[in-house]
C-alpha cells in the first residue's frame, strides 16, 4: 500500500522547479508519447476492424455464403436442386442466378460490366440492395428494366428512365455472319451499396430476361445459398454437399475471398506491432526522465533515508511518480482515441473540406465511407499494455533510488 506521505512526495516530484526544467521537458515528451501511442493504436485498430467488418458485411450481403454450381455447363433442373438445398438445416435462402460479363454502351461511351440475373423477389430479400436504392422504383425492375450502380450511371451519363445497350460476348448467326448479341435496357433503379466495385461495374437484371439474353433456356449459372448462422458454414456446406449427392459442386465465400481477408488480418497484426513501438519508445522516455529525476533528487533521497524513510518507501515513491505519467497519458490517449474513432467519418469530411483533397478515394479502398468499429476488448488490451509498460519502466529508476547510499550522497555537501 502507498502511504499519504509517499503520495505527497511523488506529487511534489511531478511538479518540477525551474532548475529541473529539462527533466520536466522529458517527462512531457513521455506523457505525449504514451498519449499519442495509445490514441493512434485505438484509432488504427478501430478503422481496420471497421474496414474488415464493412467489407465482410457488404460482400456477403450481395453474394451468398455458398454457391452451388454445375460441374459442366449451365445448371439444369435448378428448381429441384433449390428445393433440396432449401431443406438443409441452417440454410436461410437459396437464390437461382445468372452471372455473366458484358459490355454496356451509351452514346459512344462503353464500359465492361458484370450482369447478374435474379428475380424481383430475391432483389427485395437482399437488404443491402433494397436499402441501397437511391433513385427509381423497384417495382419497375422487370422485363427490360434493370438496376445499375451510381458510379456506372455517372460513367455512362444515365439517369432513371434512360436506355442503354448491353452487348453479350456470345454471338448469334445472321445472314451477315456471326454477330454479338445486343439488347436495349431501361434504367429502372440506381443503387449505391457502399462498395465501389459493385457501384461501378454491376447490373442487376430480372432472371427471365437474363435467361433469354444469355441463352440460359430453363437453366442458371448457379445457386447462391445464404445461411442463418455464417459461423456454421463448415457444417452446412457438408450437409448441402450430401443433399445434392454429386449432382453439382459446392464452394463457399472463403474459397474466393480467404486470401483477401487473410491479407487484411496480417496487415492488422503488423500495424498493431508497429504502433506498439510508439508506446515502447514513450516508456523509454519515462525511464530516462526518472533516472534524471533520481540523479537530481539524490540529496533529497539521502535526507529522507536519514530521517527514517525505508528503501521500499523510496522505491514506491519513484514508481508512483513514473507510473503517474503513464496512467495520465493512457487515460487521455484512450479518451482521445475512442472519440476520434467514433467520429472519424465526420473528421474525414472536415479535413477534406479544409484541405480540398480526397483523403479516402472509394475506387482505391472499395468503400465510399471511412468505417470504424471500436472493439472494447481491444481497447482494454491496449490500455492494459500501456499501463504495464509504464509501470515496468519505473522499476529500474525506482530501484536505483532505493539503493542510493545516504552517506555518499551527502559526502560533499
Structure description:
By secondary structure, the protein is α+β, with helices and mostly antiparallel strands. The protein has two domains: 4-57 and 260-410, no CATH class; 71-247, no CATH class. Helix content is 57%, strand content 20%. The chain contains 17 helices and twelve strands. The chain has helices at 4-14, 21-62, 78-86, 120-125, 127-131, 150-156, 196-201, 207-213, 233-244, 253-296, 298-306, 311-342, 344-355, 362-365, 376-393, 395-402, 406-410; strands spanning 66-69, 75-76, 91-106, 109-117, 133-136, 145-149, 163-174, 177-191, 202-205, 219-220, 222-227, 249-252. It has a six-stranded mixed barrel with strand order 3-4-9-6-8-7. The chain has a two-stranded antiparallel sheet with strand order 2-10. Strand 3 and strand 4 (109-117) form a beta hairpin. Helix 2 packs antiparallel against helix 10 (253-296) and helix 12 (311-342) packs antiparallel against helix 15. The longest helix is centred in the middle third of the chain and has 44 residues, at 253-296. The chain is elongated. The mean pLDDT is 81.
Summarize the helices and strands and which ones pair or pack.
Elements (H helix, E strand, L loop, with lengths): L3 H11 L6 H42 L3 E4 L5 E2 L1 H9 L4 E16 L2 E9 L2 H6 L1 H5 L1 E4 L8 E5 H7 L6 E12 L2 E15 L4 H6 E4 L1 H7 L5 E2 L1 E6 L5 H12 L4 E4 H44 L1 H9 L4 H32 L1 H12 L6 H4 L10 H18 L1 H8 L3 H5 L3
Parallel strand pairs: 4-9, 6-8
Antiparallel strand pairs: 1-11, 1-12, 2-10, 3-4, 3-7, 3-11, 5-8, 6-9, 7-8
Amino acid at each position: 500500500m502507498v502511504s499519504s506521505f509517499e503520495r505527497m512526495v511523488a506529487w511534489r516530484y511531478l511538479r518540477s522547479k525551474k532548475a529541473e526544467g529539462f527533466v520536466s521537458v522529458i517527462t512531457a515528451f513521455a506523457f505525449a508519447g504514451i498519449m499519442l501511442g495509445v490514441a493512434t493504436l485505438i484509432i488504427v485498430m478501430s478503422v481496420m476492424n471497421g474496414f474488415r467488418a464493412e467489407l465482410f458485411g457488404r460482400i456477403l450481403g450481395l453474394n451468398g455464403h455458398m454457391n452451388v454450381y454445375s460441374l459442366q455447363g449451365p445448371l439444369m433442373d435448378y428448381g429441384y436442386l433449390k428445393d433440396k438445398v432449401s431443406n438443409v438445416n441452417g440454410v436461410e435462402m437459396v437464390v437461382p442466378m445468372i452471372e455473366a460479363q458484358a459490355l454496356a454502351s451509351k452514346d459512344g461511351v462503353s464500359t465492361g460490366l458484370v450482369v447478374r440475373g435474379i428475380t424481383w423477389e430475391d432483389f427485395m430479400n437482399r437488404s443491402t440492395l433494397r436499402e441501397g436504392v437511391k433513385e427509381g422504383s423497384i417495382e419497375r425492375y422487370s422485363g427490360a428494366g434493370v438496376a445499375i450502380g451510381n458510379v456506372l450511371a455517372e460513367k455512362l451519363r444515365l439517369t432513371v428512365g434512360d436506355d442503354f445497350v448491353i452487348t453479350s460476348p456470345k454471338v448469334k448467326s445472321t445472314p451477315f455472319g456471326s454477330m454479338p448479341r445486343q439488347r436495349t435496357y431501361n434504367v429502372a433503379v440506381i443503387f449505391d451499396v457502399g462498395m465501389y466495385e459493385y457501384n461501378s461495374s454491376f447490373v442487376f437484371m430480372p432472371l427471365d430476361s437474363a435467361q433469354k439474353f444469355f441463352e440460359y433456356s430453363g437453366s442458371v449459372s448457379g445457386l447462391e445459398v445464404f445461411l442463418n448462422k455464417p459461423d456454421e458454414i463448415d457444417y452446412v456446406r457438408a450437409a448441402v454437399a450430401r443433399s445434392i449427392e454429386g449432382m453439382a459442386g459446392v464452394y463457399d465465400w472463403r474459397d474466393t475471398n480467404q486470401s483477401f481477408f487473410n491479407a487484411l488480418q496480417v496487415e492488422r497484426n503488423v500495424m498493431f506491432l508497429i504502433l506498439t513501438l510508439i508506446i515502447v519508445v514513450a516508456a523509454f522516455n519515462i525511464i530516462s526522465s526518472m533516472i534524471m529525476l533520481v540523479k537530481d533528487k539524490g540529496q533529497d533521497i539521502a535526507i529522507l533515508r536519514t530521517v527514517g524513510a525505508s528503501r521500499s518507501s523510496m522505491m514506491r515513491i519513484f514508481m508512483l511518480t513514473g507510473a503517474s505519467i503513464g496512467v495520465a497519458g493512457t487515460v487521455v490517449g484512450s479518451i482521445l482515441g475512442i472519440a476520434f474513432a467514433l467520429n472519424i467519418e465526420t473528421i474525414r469530411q472536415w479535413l477534406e473540406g479544409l484541405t480540398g483533397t480526397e483523403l479516402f478515394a472509394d475506387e482505391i479502398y472499395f468503400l465510399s465511407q471511412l468505417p470504424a468499429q471500436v472493439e472494447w476488448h481491444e481497447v482494454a488490451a491496449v490500455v492494459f499494455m500501456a499501463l504495464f509498460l509504464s509501470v515496468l519502466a519505473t522499476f529500474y529508476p525506482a530501484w536505483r533510488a532505493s539503493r542510493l547510499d545516504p552517506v555518499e550522497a551527502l559526502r560533499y555537501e
